[in-house]
Structure formats: structure tokens, C-alpha cells
Write a structure and sequence with these properties.
By secondary structure, the protein is an alpha/beta fold. Helices cover 25% and strands 22% of the residues. The chain is built from 14 helices and 30 strands. Strands 14-13-12-15-17-16 form a six-stranded mixed beta sheet, sandwiched between helices. It has a six-stranded mixed beta sheet with strand order 28-27-18-19-20-29, with helices on both faces. Strand 24 and strand 25 form a beta hairpin. Helix 8 crosses helix 12. The longest helix is centred in the last third of the chain and has 25 residues. The C terminus is likely disordered.
């Protein structure tokens, strides 16, 4: 144990801290602002505070986590957890810290449920799915006639709908004769891709359904669709449980390399999550998961490898070799997915080592290959995918932005949940912040934090931390107010009383103790600013490398894709230098385009061929070995940029300012770590 105690990390929030031996996990969580349900106040009766210890070596965090790093389980706790069918969990109210641990808080145990914004977008889609239903009447069997009922069904399908050379799934074959008996030789047949009979139902029946899935590094979204009408019947989303093993792609690859069962653990985690999402979506539409006949999957290359149970270590270094680049059709049952027993899983193709099926899905949705204008499409996330081009050419790249845009690596960072600061405005005269939190539409200057809960001035939620859109606006507003210098340092010459100094380093008070849920101020620290600079510089540099390869100095239109991209104000994206200069009116947020692309491929089989053609036609630029990437990266660390012009911000950016040689009297205060 270090002098500061043992390290405790809570996932998926990413909050971490050091605690002395003997502190309960629940107390540690409360001190870090991690909300865990606890109704019985530690009496071992409610079971709401259950958590799970993740075991193994976590190189990124520099710890080895083990269940033995908590006090042993007592008989009362063991009995309660067994009754809850949670034998692999611990109760945070009674488990005490004896070593470094990484703790996963299940969704049902979280006091504040995360808001995952991955709704389907309204799009015009031509409906032509791979799955079709046909009602046919099959010839009666006759003595001395030996075709067999499967041959008779084939003959009926050829005679009535023109299908030939069919095969039949074993599950459907087992149902064939019972269905013929019950339907008095009339059956409804479900055929996949005009090739395989996957189900036989007695009589005339309607209804065939599919699930489009976007497996993101941070979140997973699923869209249940009626394959006949194209209607989205239900949308479900959840945190990607693999976050426990690493917040970014390289951390997960590292976990797979350093732990023998690492890839298997992460595969099992995503399959379990997908089964849960499928069941929830089906229930919301008054269906069963076994009514889902097909799933189309999009995701980056690491997510696809882990989904398929393939060790992703080859993606961890040059030449970043994929196990398979092309589209795949697999049986859901072979992956452990609990859908229809004969359900098909279509995995969209990838472009290259770190530009995967999610980027191909974005291309299907946004169709830059049909545009005359030069478009820059940025899917903002833990690993940003970038596409540049038009109908004549397309180029792609990926940039390792890391999880800072998701609220991780930020001192008060949190996922998008009630109480997370999501919008920030800073008074240009006083330097004081006005902010808005998720769950309350009012700005903080309209709050009366001391008002009784029944009065109108009382905020619905006090500030609990900062989410991704909040930290982007905070850094951009600090720069516009002159509190941050272009190089990202706090300006010692600024007179605001919201800057707290420790030596040459400062932090900005974003929320005062009266405005926060735990009574402690929320800071934007120098390290927070630096992490945002590193993330935005990686994204900007990736875009500039593509522009240089294409020989273009500007783009006509910018599309911000991804759930997070939808909540970035285009103006602040420009001010921060997240994207190259462009008319703000030509910057559009399109939501979860990868999920929409997966839905398009689910509903139109021709789009799957188009996806394959796109994956092979896009020119991929590997930024990891691009010699000019580092040069562009260094220039992009400045806000908005060290040298690139931003003419569309001419009336917005502050006049150049230099820090005074001798700063005014600084407020000194030890910030709580």
C-alpha cells in the first residue's frame, strides 16, 4: 500500500481515488461521487448495492485487481447474493478495501442511470430485406410417392414464388412436419436471401423482425425493426461492458495481451449485453427475442474482433492486420446470441486496420460518394473515424482521441447522466460560469440551491460532474473569456476570482460547493484542459493529413456523426479547433449514423453489396505511420490552432493576449484530489 492508500477505480464512470485499508466500497464510491443504490443502509437486506470485482492486470491503470483485495465474504452476504443470483458480485456496503481493485457497478445498482443518446434518425430507406415470408400449400404425401416433405415444400416454393436451389436449416426441418400437420398442409415459410429456409410456421402468419446493432467502444445501441414495413419498433442502448477492461481500444487490446482469458472475457461481456438489449427491445414491442430472425452489426475493428471471439492483439501494432476484412454471415447461435434458433448475423465489412464496419455504416447512411461537394465526416468517439471526399474519391483515417470526450480522464468527468454539466457559458466581465446540467433545462443562475424541494427555484439535480459536451464548452468558453491562453495555460493576468493557483498551476472553479451534489467545488484543472487539447489535436491532425493527401485546402461541408457528435455545438467545435475551418451553417450533426447505416443494411440487401464496394474503394491513410501527422498534431494543440486560419471565427475569437510577467494577487487554495 502506498502512503496514499489503495487505488480504487469504479467503472463505467471511470472515477478513481486512493483509500486506506478498511474503507467500504460504498463509502469510497460516495466520496468519489459514484452513485450506488443503497436502501437498507448496510443492513444486508436490500441487495441494491451489489458490484463486481474485475480481476486481472490493468496496465493502463497500473494495478492488478483481484477479489482477494477485499475483505472475505461473510455467510449473510453470501446467502443474500445467492438469492439474488449474483454469486459473482459483492455488496459494496460490507466489502472493505484491502488492496487495489477495479469495480464494475451494474446498471441496476447505479443511483443515476446514464442517458445514452443513440436514437434512430428518420431516413428514407427502400425496403428489400434478406428475409421474406411466403404462404404455400404443400402437396399431400401419397403411398408410393417418395419425395419427402422437404422436397414437396421445395416444389411448392418453386411453383408458387419461383425459388429454386434452396437449403433448409436443421431447426426448420425439425418443425416442418408438425407445421404441415397443424396447418393442414398450408404453411408460412421464412426464407433468408432466397437461399435458405430458416423457419416453417403452421397456417398463414405474419411478422418477421430484425435487429440493427452499433457496437461502440463506449455505448451499444440496438434498433428493432419490422422487416416488412421498415418501422423501428424499439430502440435500446447500454454502456459497453468492456469499458471495465479498458476505456479505449488500445487498453482493451493490452488487456487481451496481458491476460490469457482477456479476449474471452470481453467476448462474453458483449454477447451478454447484446442478449439483454435484444430481450429488452423485443419486450418493448410485445415480442420475444426468438422472433428476431436477423441481426446486422457495425462496430470498429477491435469491437468486431471481440464480438466474434477473436483475439485483437494483431491490431495493437503495425501492420494492424485484420482477421477478416470482408462482410460475414454467421449463425447467431454459434456466437451465443439468444435470437431465433436459425437467425443470421450479418457483420458489415471493414476498410482497414483501425477503420471498421462502423465507418462503412456511416458511409451507407451519409452517402458522400453521391455528393459533388467535398465533405468531411467525423464520427466523434473514443476512436474517431474520419472520411473525406465526394462522388469522385473517398479517403479515410482514424485518430486515437481517447475517452476524454466521453468525460473520462477529466478530474470531475462523468458519463452523460442526470446532474452532469452539459452546457457552459462564462461571463466575459467577471469570468464566472453559468451552466446547465442534464435533467434540468434551467441555467444555474436561475437556481436557488437552498430552496425547499417543493419550491420552483430548487434545481432538479445539483451538479455531479462534467460530461463530454460540458468539458468542450467549458474549455472553449474559458478561451473566449481570456481565462485560457491559446497554448492552453490559464492566464495569470486575468482578474477573475474563479482561478485557484498552486504555484504556477491553476484550476478554474466551474461550480461552487452550493451548486454541487457532494458540497465540493467542481474544477476544470490544467490537466483537464491538456487532455482535451490532446484529444482534439489528434482528431484535427487526422483530418488535416487527409486534406493534404487529397490536395484540398478547405472543405465544403462537415458532418459530425456519433451520439456524442450530436451534442457538440458546431461553433464550439470550431473555437476549440476540433475540426478545420468551415461555415458554421454548413456543419451538421446527424446522430448515430453508424446505427442508421446498420439499419439500412438490415432493411435493404442491395446496400450490403454497396457496403462491400465502398469498403474496398475507400483509400485508407494510416495516421500511425504518417510522417506529417506529428507535425499537424503539434500545431493543433493550440486553441484553435497555432497557425491554421479560421476566417469564419473572425468575429468570435478574442484578440491575442499574453500572460503578464507578474500576475496579480492569486487566490491560493489546496484543491481536493
Amino acid at each position: 500500500m502506498s502512503e496514499q492508500g489503495f487505488q480504487v477505480i469504479f467503472m463505467p464512470s471511470g472515477r478513481r481515488g486512493r483509500f486506506p485499508e478498511g474503507v467500504t466500497l460504498l463509502d469510497a464510491a460516495r466520496e468519489l461521487g459514484v452513485g450506488i443504490e443503497s436502501i437498507c443502509s448496510g443492513r444486508l437486506t436490500c441487495g441494491k448495492c451489489k458490484v463486481r470485482v474485475e480481476e486481472g492486470e490493468f496496465a493502463k491503470h497500473g494495478i492488478v485487481s483481484a477479489a482477494s483485495h477485499l475483505t472475505p465474504m461473510g455467510e449473510e452476504e453470501r446467502t443474500l447474493l445467492h438469492s439474488l443470483r449474483a454469486d459473482d458480485c459483492r455488496l459494496s456496503c460490507t466489502a472493505r478495501i484491502t488492496g487495489d481493485v477495479l469495480i464494475y457497478v451494474p446498471e441496476e445498482s447505479r443511483a443515476q442511470k446514464q442517458i445514452i443518446r443513440k436514437a434512430a434518425t428518420e431516413r428514407v430507406i427502400e425496403i428489400d430485406p434478406t428475409l421474406r415470408q411466403y404462404y404455400v400449400v404443400v402437396d399431400e404425401a401419397a403411398l408410393g410417392e417418395h419425395r419427402g416433405d422437404w422436397r414437396r415444400l421445395q416444389d411448392a416454393l418453386e411453383r408458387e414464388v419461383g425459388l429454386t436451389d434452396l437449403t433448409i436449416d436443421l431447426h426448420a426441418l425439425r418443425k416442418l412436419q408438425p407445421a404441415l400437420r397443424e396447418g393442414k398442409r398450408g404453411v408460412t415459410v421464412v426464407v433468408w436471401n432466397d437461399r435458405e429456409v430458416v423457419d416453417v410456421r403452421p397456417g398463414y402468419q405474419e411478422g418477421v423482425y430484425g435487429l440493427a446493432v452499433d457496437i461502440g467502444s463506449t455505448t451499444v445501441a440496438a434498433y428493432l425493426c419490422d422487416l416488412r414495413t421498415g418501422e423501428v419498433l424499439a430502440t435500446e442502448s447500454a454502456m459497453n461492458p468492456q469499458i471495465t477492461y479498458g476505456e479505449d481500444l488500445m487498453s482493451r487490446i493490452s488487456y487481451a495481451m496481458m491476460n490469457e482469458d482477456g479476449a474471452e472475457k470481453m467476448h462474453d461481456a458483449i454477447i451478454k449485453a447484446l442478449n439483454k438489449l435484444a430481450a429488452q427491445a423485443a419486450h418493448a414491442a410485445n415480442l420475444r427475442a426468438r422472433d428476431i430472425y436477423e441481426m446486422v452489426v457495425a462496430g470498429n475493428t477491435t469491437m468486431i474482433h471481440l464480438f466474434l471471439g477473436i483475439d485483437p492483439r494483431e491490431l495493437g501494432g503495425a501492420p494492424f492486420a485484420l482477421a477478416n476484412r470482408d462482410a460475414m454471415d454467421l449463425k447467431a447461435r454459434d456466437l451465443g446470441l439468444r435470437l431465433h434458433p436459425a437467425a443470421n448475423v450479418h457483420v458489415l465489412p471493414s476498410e482497414a486496420g483501425h477503420v471498421g464496419a462502423d465507418n462503412v455504416a456511416v458511409l451507407l447512411a451519409e452517402e458522400p460518394h453521391r455528393q459533388d461537394e467535398i465533405e468531411l465526416i467525423v464520427d466523434v468517439g473514443t476512436n474517431a473515424e474520419i472520411v473525406l471526399g465526394n462522388r469522385h474519391w473517398l479517403m479515410s483515417a482514424s485518430s486515437p482521441t481517447g475517452p476524454a470526450f466521453e468525460g473520462a480522464q477529466i478530474s470531475a468527468g462523468m458519463r452523460a447522466a442526470p446532474g452532469a454539466i452539459e452546457r457552459v457559458r462564462i461571463d466575459r466581465a467577471t469570468g464566472r460560469a453559468n451552466f446547465r446540467v442534464i435533467g434540468d433545462e434551467r441555467w444555474s443562475d436561475e437556481w436557488d440551491a437552498h430552496a425547499p424541494s417543493h419550491l420552483a427555484g430548487k434545481p432538479e439535480y445539483l451538479a455531479a460532474g462534467i460530461c463530454g459536451s460540458g468539458i468542450i464548452e467549458a474549455v472553449a468558453e474559458l478561451f473566449l473569456a481570456g481565462i485560457l491562453l491559446p497554448d492552453g495555460r490559464f492566464n495569470p493576468a486575468h482578474p477573475t476570482d474563479r482561478l485557484i493557483w498552486e504555484g504556477r498551476r491553476a484550476a478554474y472553479i466551474l461550480a461552487t460547493p452550493e451548486q454541487t451534489a457532494n458540497g465540493q467545488p467542481i474544477y476544470v484543472t490544467q490537466d483537464d484542459v491538456r487532455n482535451i487539447q490532446l484529444a482534439k489535436a489528434a482528431l484535427y491532425a487526422g483530418a488535416k493529413v487527409l486534406m493534404k493527401r487529397a490536395g484540398v485546402a478547405r472543405v465544403d461541408r462537415i458532418i459530425l456523426a456519433g451520439a456524442f457528435g450530436s451534442y457538440i455545438d458546431p461553433l464550439y467545435a470550431l473555437v476549440l479547433g476540433l475540426i478545420p475551418d468551415c461555415d458554421p451553417q454548413r456543419i451538421a450533426a446527424v446522430g448515430n449514423a453508424a446505427g442508421d447505416g446498420a439499419r439500412i443494411a438490415l432493411l435493404n440487401r442491395a446496400k450490403r453489396k454497396e457496403a462491400m464496394a465502398l469498403a474496398h474503394s475507400v483509400r485508407y491513410v494510416e495516421t500511425a505511420v504518417a510522417q506529417d501527422f506529428q507535425e499537424e498534431f503539434v500545431g493543433a494543440l493550440h486553441i484553435p490552432h497555432a497557425s491554421d486560419p479560421f476566417p469564419h471565427l473572425a468575429d468570435v475569437l478574442p484578440a491575442p493576449a499574453a500572460a503578464a510577467d507578474a500576475a496579480p494577487t492569486r487566490r491560493r487554495m489546496r484543491m481536493r484530489t
